[in-house]
Design brief:
Layout lengths: L4 H9 L9 H10 L25 H14 L5 H4 L10
Length: 90
């Protein structure tokens, strides 16, 4: 098991298996074909876990709405601003 993203990237480039990696680490490798995207149609979900209550506190609701607006269906900031590699295609 790799300790950090760079070690995991090196292992992937050596053919050690598959992994879910952020594009800010492997974006150039994806763009050049050194690595291939898998399971693009199955994004990893993000879950918010909090104690069950009859009424969700306003702060929790506001936070969940904020996260949804910030992360919703938009690509991460490093992909929106980057021109170094293309966005992944379906």
């Amino acid at each position: 098991m790799a300790v950090d993203g760079d070690e995991q990237r090196d292992a992937l480039l050596a053919g050690a298996g598959i992994a879910q990696m952020p594009t800010f680490i492997v974006g150039v490798d994806l763009a050049t074909g050194r690595l291939l995207p898998l399971l693009e149609r199955y994004p990893l979900p993000l879950h918010a876990v909090f104690p069950e209550r009859k009424h969700v506190p306003a702060k929790v609701s506001a936070f969940l709405e904020f996260i949804d607006r910030r992360l919703g269906s938009e690509p991460p900031p490093w992909e929106r601003a980057s021109t170094d590699f293309p966005a992944a295609a379906d």
